[in-house]
Amino acid sequence: MTKPLRIAMIGYGFMGKAHSNAYRKLAHFFPELEHRPELTVLCARNREKAEEFARTWSYAEVETDWRKVVERDDIDAIDICSPNHTHVELAIAAAANGKWLMCEKPLAMNVEEAERMTQAVEEAGIPNMVWFNYRRVPAIALARQIVDEQRIGRPFHYRATYLQDWTIAEDVPQGGAALWRLDVDVAGSGVTGDLLAHSIDTAMWLNGPITRVVADTETFVKERMHQETGKMQPVGIDDACMFLARFANGSMGTFESTRYARGRKNFNTFELNGADGSVHFDLEDPQYIDFFEHTRPATGDKVEDHLTGWRRIHVTNFEHPYMDRWWVPGCTVGYEHTFIHALADFLKGVESGTPAQPDFRNALQTQRVCDAVLASARSRGWVDTGVESTQPVAAV
Ligand SMILES: NC(=O)c1ccc[n+]([C@@H]2O[C@H](COP(=O)([O-])OP(=O)(O)OC[C@H]3O[C@@H](n4cnc5c(N)ncnc54)[C@H](O)[C@@H]3O)[C@@H](O)[C@H]2O)c1
């Protein structure tokens, strides 16, 4: 038997589109799920633009005040796709009204907000999730499977980069609808919360908790015109961030992120090196995972021979994560599918009674690392993250 899941989505931008697509496709590719998303309300401040989006995606209604939306009896779940500074108030109000919550990353502007949000959803006892969608790239999920199968052995190194190139010109303004990511009061931070939050989530999912960090950040353009005031204002975000990390399992990590890497558009990569093998991933080539296996003979020392080398696995076979839902082997899926997978995992978690990860509490751990990174860049020393868990979280 199917149950309607009446959704109110807050925001119609990039993520509004990605999530609406996921709601529309879910039942076709995951028909066994009981819950059937219904696009009940689209909420955004600009009614005209919201109505245009609602028509395109067939939302039943438009609302411009999210406070009214979270109180409506005909809404089951709130999906937060608005800029970071709106997450805390929205989530706490939605939780107080018993709504399920699906929130975009980063969970919050800082740990203090993320703790209050986590407390709110836990006290309300409502299903909750954060859209760290890269865990749902089939190749990254396969990397997790490779780790779970203990094919990496004792981990030594984790290396992540997340590079883009879209804010280099000095005359790019900050703030306003399209450029809120450059305004620290709306975004909370620069690349740390926007890009490294993804890298940190993936890293802790694959390699366990990050316990301490030392970081450096740079703001290359110190002042930009603010679109809302029309005045030159100091830039408060980090344009670039590099940090060293220590993991609870004893391995070492390096993380680098910038919006100033000419030619890099969404260059999200990682590599994990262990005693028995390595995995490498690059989001600009997302259907592949590279795996190196250090062969282990029945007795004696490990050996390599003239055919030893990296294996490039095209992650499109039915036995690969999520791929039995899509096309025949060899046919790829893309970015938009990660949101469908995230939604399917979330609902499967609710229906089975084993909540999917990452939920708010799990995303709070990533927020702790982000805050520790920014604190370290200010203090110029190592900072303990205070991340709670001592084990990698469950796969789904
Ligand atoms: N998971 C991912 O890979 C990913 C990718 C991009 C963005 N995000 C996150 O998603 C969120 C939204 O980012 P985006 O790229 O979609 O932004 P966007 O600028 O494309 O869209 C933001 C939307 O929020 C609306 N909005 C702004 N303030 C609002 C308010 N006070 N009340 C109601 N609506 C409001 C805007 O009108 C717009 O529709 C951010 O938290 C961002 O970090 C996640």
Question: What does this protein structure show overall?
Answer:
The protein is of the alpha/beta class. The chain folds into 2 domains: 3-133, 3-Layer(aba) Sandwich (Rossmann fold); 134-384, Dihydrodipicolinate Reductase, domain 2. It has helices at residues 14-29, 47-57, 66-71, 87-96, 111-124, 138-148, 184-187, 191-207, 335-352, 360-379; strands spanning 3-10, 35-43, 61-63, 77-80, 100-103, 128-130, 155-163, 210-218, 223-225, 232-234, 240-247, 252-258, 267-274, 277-282, 288-293, 311-314, 383-384. Helix 4 (87-96) links the parallel strand 4 and strand 5 (100-103). Helix 8 packs across helix 10 (360-379). It is globular, with a radius of gyration of 21 Å. Mean pLDDT is 96; it is low at 390-396. The structure holds nicotinamide-adenine-dinucleotide. Nicotinamide-adenine-dinucleotide (NAD) is lined by residues 10-16, 43-45, 66, 81-84, 86, 104-105, 131, 133, 194.
- State the fourth-level CATH superfamily of the largest domain: Dihydrodipicolinate Reductase, domain 2
**Major β-sheet annotation:** 9 strands, mixed
Rg calc: 21 Å
List all distinct small molecules, including ions and cofactors, that are bound in this structure.
nicotinamide-adenine-dinucleotide
Helix-strand category: alpha/beta
Q: What's the total helix number? A: 10
